[in-house]
Amino acid sequence: SGDEAIQIARKEQPNVILMDVVMPGMSGYQTTRKLSRDQATQKIPVIFVSIKSNETDRVWGMRQGAAAYVTKPVNPDSLLTAISDAIAA
Q1: Residue 15 pLDDT > 90
Q2: pTM here?
């Protein structure tokens, strides 16, 4: 859930977060927006990995603070590139 993701991110401070859009409770968009506005987590890059593949979904995800948006089924090379780019930024 989004609430659990926020709690874990604050505690664990991961190098990157892979986030789905559709989640129980708050959406991945809402969760990413909260993470990007929280001083404790705003520097952790979030990468959406979602079945939602419309351009509007991608744009909205990026506006919420995501570093990248990868669609399912995931191309492993695209995901690894997105992770590398997000960590390097």
Answers
A1: yes
A2: 0.92
